[in-house]
Amino acid sequence: MAAEDLEVLDAEFEAVCARIGPLFYRPESRAHAREYLRGLLAPLEKKNGWTIAEHVGAPEPKRMQRFLNLTPWDADGMRDVLVGYAMEHFADERAVLIADPTGFAKKGRKSAGVQRQYSGTLGRIDNCQIGTFLAYATPGGHRVLLDRELYLPEHTWAADRERCREAGVPDAVPFRTRPQQVRLMVERALAAKVPFAWFAADEEFGQNPQLRAFLEEHTVSYVMAVPKNTEVTTASGDAGKIEDLTAALPERAFTRRACGIGAKGFRSYDWAVVEAGDPDHRYIVRRPLDSGELAYFHCFTPRRDPLSEVIRAIGSRWPVEECFEAAKQEAGLDQYQVRKYDAWHRHITMSMLALCLLAVMRQALQKGDLGLWTTFRNRTDGPSGTG
C-alpha cells in the first residue's frame, strides 16, 4: 500500500501544478513554480531562494528570485485557484471564517510596508511587516489560509507614493486599515461562494463599526471580541460598560461549557449572555475556571443560534493561530527574502497553497503514514523525475 499511497501523493502534487500552470506564459516559469512549490513542501530548516534552489538542484538562487520578483504572473489569480482547490476538499456549511494579522520581523526599511510597529505575533514593537489573513476552519478539524493582504501603514507608506513605487506598490493600491482589508477579503469569499456559518475575529475588528455594519448588511453571522469598556444597552433598557453589566449578573447566569479541544483536553469556561436591545445581537461573557480576565464577545446572530452554537463559533477563532504556526513551520510563510510588494504576495500565496496541499495530502493518507510522508517531502522531483 505504501507505493500506491505515494502515487496518490505524487498525483495530487501534479494535479495542483496543473491547476496553476495556466497562470504562467512560459514553460520555464511553470517549471520554476513547480520547483518553488516542491521546495516549500520539503522539510528544509529554512525555505528561501537559496535553500529551495539547492533542494531542487539549481546551482544558484537566481531563477527562484526571478520567479518571485520579475516573472509576469498574477498572485491574485493563484489565490483564486487556492480558494477553489480548498473548497473542493474542505467546503463546509458550518465552517468559520477567521480574520487575524500576523507579523514578519524584517531588517532595514526597504521591504514594502516595513516599519517599527506593534506585532502581537512578536509580542512587542519591532521592525516588521504585518500581513492580514483570512483563515477557514471546519468542524472536522481542517484549517487553511484563504486570503491575504499586506498592510501598508498610512503615513510612512501609503502617503509616500515615491517610497511605495520603490517597493513596487502599484499607484492604484490605496491605504486600507486592517478592518478594511478584512472587508475586502470577506467580499471576495462571498463572491467566490465560499460556504461558512460564522465570521470570527479579535478586538481590533470587533470594535470597528464599519466592518460590523458590512457583515450585518450581508447577513453574515459573527462573533468578535470587544474590549471591557464597550458601551452596551441591554434588552431591559440598562446601559453601561459591558464589564459593569457583567459584574451585576447573578452567579446563576453563568453556565459551564467547553468551546473546543486544546492540547490539554477540552477548553472549558463559564459563560453568560447579556441580551442587547436588538434581538439579532447579544454579548457573550467568557470567564476562566481559575484566575484570569474575563473576555467579551459581540455576537450578531440573525439565525437566533442557540448558545452552544455561538460558543462553538467563539472557540473556532483559535485555529487561525494553528494555521500560522503550520504555515511558518511547514510551508515557509515567514522565511522569504523579498522586498517588493508583488513578490511578498507571490511568496505568501505560494506558501498558503503549499499549506492547503499538505492538508489535502494528509486527508488522503487518513492514517498518516509518517514514513511515507517523509519519503514524499524529501523528494526533489516529481514522479516523472523532472524538475
Automatic annotation (TrEMBL):
SUPFAM superfamilies: Ribonuclease H-like. It holds the Pfam family DDE_5. InterPro entries: IS701-like, IS701-like_DDE_dom, RNaseH-like_sf. Residues 23-232 form the Transposase IS701-like DDE domain. This is Transposase. The lineage of its organism: Bacteria, Bacillati, Actinomycetota, Actinomycetes, Kitasatosporales. PANTHER family: TRANSPOSASE (PTHR33627:SF1).
